[in-house]
Amino acid sequence: MPNELIDLYLRTLKTDLPDDICWIVVQPLSGALTVKDAVTRIGGRLERCRDMTPVDAYLLSPGDALSFERTETGVAVLQVAGFLGMIPAVIEPLSRGARAWVAHWDVNAEFTMLH
Q1: What does the pLDDT profile of the chain (115 residues) look like in tens digits?
Q2: Please, is 100 exposed, middle or buried when counting C-beta atoms within 10 Å of its C-beta (0-12, 13-18, 19+)?
Q3: How far apart are CA 75 and CA 104, in angstroms?
Q4: Alpha helices per DSSP H over the chain
Q5: Where are the beta strands (DSSP E) in the chain?
Q6: Alpha-carbon distance 115 to 97, whole Å?
Q7: Rounded to two decimals, what is the model's pTM?
Q8: Contact 79, 72 (CB under 8 A)
């Protein structure tokens, strides 16, 4: 994963984040996965996608916005104030033909990792 993406998430964690964070990283078993592929796999509409920071997306629509970033061959998804990566209907289509990692933590300091 590019250092810029890691830096983005570390900066985001140090700013005004709410209580729940869900971070998903999807790495295809072969080839590449695009943001367009990831958005459509979970039933998202590309025409609703906007270019903004994760914090701006959260402020626009708390808990409903997903931030997608392309890695070298995969996609990282950050949801501020949410837990979509814990829902099978979201993570199963993302992990088809891929490995997917989910890290989720909440206000009660509960932390879950899935692979």
Answers
A1: 567 767 766 666 666 556 688 899 999 999 999 999 999 999 998 898 888 887 788 788 877 888 899 988 999 998 888 888 889 999 999 999 999 999 988 767 677 887 7
A2: buried
A3: 17
A4: 3-14, 35-41, 54-60, 88-95
A5: 21-28, 67-70, 75-80, 98-105, 111-114
A6: 13
A7: 0.78
A8: no
